[in-house]
Amino acid sequence: MSDKRILLIIGGGIAAYKSLELIRELSRRGIASRCIVTKGGQEFVTPLSVSALSGEKVFTELFDLDDEADMGHIQLSRSADLVVVCPATADLMAKAAGGLAGDLASTTLLATDKPVLMVPAMNVRMWEHAATQRNVETLRADGVEVMDPDEGAMACGEFGPGRLPEPMAIANRIEAKLSGGAVLYGLDSKPLAGRHVLVTAGPTREPLDPVRFLSNHSSGKQGYAIAGALAKAGARVTLVSGPVSVPVPQNVDLVPIETAREMLDACENALPADVFISVAAVADWRPSRAAAKKMKLKEGEGDPHPTLELSENPDILATLSRKKKRRPDLVIGFAAETHDVEDLAIAKLKRKRCDWIVANDVSGDVMGGAMNQVSLVTRQGIEDRWPRMTKEDVAVRLVARIVEEFDDESDQIAAQ
Ligand code: CTP
Fold it and tell me: Whose CA is nearest to atom 4 of ligand 1?
């Protein structure tokens, strides 16, 4: 972990002193901490002691000309691999959930493009208050990971959930998060080295004329996260993707396409593969004819009531799954449904002849959002219902499950 660094925001609470222990534990693990101490935080720990332990300058003010000349607050928010708020007070969480930016800590949280981990610590009644719970829910829906506080006797004399988890547990969580969960599931030992995995992601665009197309809301986030986790596990990854705005993960070969037919061609060209994961939201239909010139609305120049004739697109998942030759050993589909999620997923698995289907409920904020809630369906039926988690965590768990499948397979071969 020697090249990793976090930005640690120390909020105002009696547990702030434990953040000093956390900095020491992280540095023992080779993780550097750059710190912001809030006004409240400075009542409990001094910037001098934080700076002595972290070995770095400590930031406290939003409008400090020296700091801005040294490192602007926007850059500060992006200078680390992970932002950790510890202790996360009720006030800091409320500000972050509401998108306020009145001081250095809240501005940093609003401006960051890095994953955020919050470690709450507060009085039990403050933690259980409906407003705090609402804010925690909002933050989690925004993709922030909020650790659950420990239960026990508190400094204020009350008892219940609200205690800061032990620094060792926080450091473990940070280490797992810095590796994108890869360490947690042993993916850093490259268990998929030598395997080729083909992934589709994003929407397809089906042209209507040179400037218009039919498409959908797929952001590509889930497919890109899966491609990234596969690469971390050592696989050679080919990612065939429609137009999206998420960055391409490291060590992934991107094949950009626009239409479903281009996606199918790109997938066929990428075979053979050991695994095929069909995450793309492929348009089922395309306009039968794409006009060569821009369609006109102006009177006399075009049809005032044009009707759209559609043709069915190829089903990429079903095509690769039904292949006689060069069928990938493991074919995994996704089923995005708004109702009867698992039943429809089981039917889809049979219809498309794939080995697994990851079923997700897209009736809420899944499309484009940071979170996902999925069930894993195999030919034997529903194997597991995973809790609501970030798309990165879904990716890591799915890859860990693929690794397990190949491990089982090699155990069986060895036993024969
Ligand atoms: N899929 C595909 N090619 C298509 C349509 C879908 O490869 N032309 C894949 C998706 O990538 C996904 C799975 O099939 O892995 C299910 O996609 P979904 O859109 O949920 O299913 P549809 O076949 O479109 O069925 P329906 O719209 O009736 O639910």
Answer: 315
Pick from 240, 348, 361 the residue to mutate for probing ligand 1's pocket: most ligand atoms within 8 Å of its CB: 348
Q: Tell me how crowded residue 5 is: count the other CB atoms within 10 A of its CB.
A: 17
Indicate which atom in ligand 1 lies nearest the CA of residue 313. Answer: 8
What's the pLDDT tens digit per position in 224-274? Answer: 999 999 999 999 999 999 999 999 999 999 999 999 999 999 999 999 999
Catalytic residue list contains 354: no
Q: Is 370 left (phi over 0), alpha (psi -120 to 50) or beta?
A: alpha
For the chain, domains (ranges, CATH) are 5-178 (3.40.50.1950), 184-289+308-415 (3.40.50.10300)
Residue with tokens 């069986």: 412
Going along 263-324, which residue ranges are E strands? Answer: 275-278, 285-287, 310-312
Give me the DSSP letters along 69-137. HHS-HHHHHHSSSEEEEEEE-HHHHHHHHHT--SSHHHHHHHH--S-EEEEE---HHHHHSHHHHHHHH
Q: Quick one: how many helices (H) and strands (E) in the chain?
A: 14, 22
Distance between Cα 204 and ligand 1 center (Å): 12
Determine the distance separating the centroid of ligand 1 and the alpha carbon of 224, expressed in angstroms.
18
| CB atoms closer than 10 angstroms to residue 210 | 12
* Residue spans of alpha helices (H) in 157-196: 167-178
Instruction: Using a cut of 0.85, tell me whether the model's pTM lies above it.
Output: no
Distance of alpha carbon 290 from alpha carbon 199, whole angstroms: 28
What's the CA-to-centroid distance between 284 and ligand 1, angstroms? Answer: 7
pLDDT < 70: residue spans in the chain: 1-2, 65-70, 180-181, 183-184, 298-303
CA–CA dist 361, 414 (Å, integer):
39
Question: Around Cβ 269, how many Cβ atoms within 10 Å?
Answer: 10
Task: Determine contact, residues 370/390, Cβ cutoff 8 Å.
Answer: yes
CA distance 159 to 170: 21
Q: Which two tokens stand for residue 290?
A: 């794409």
Q: Would the CB of 206 count as within 6 Å of ligand 1?
A: no
Report the candidate in 373, 366, 387 with the shortest Cα–Cα distance to residue 148.
387
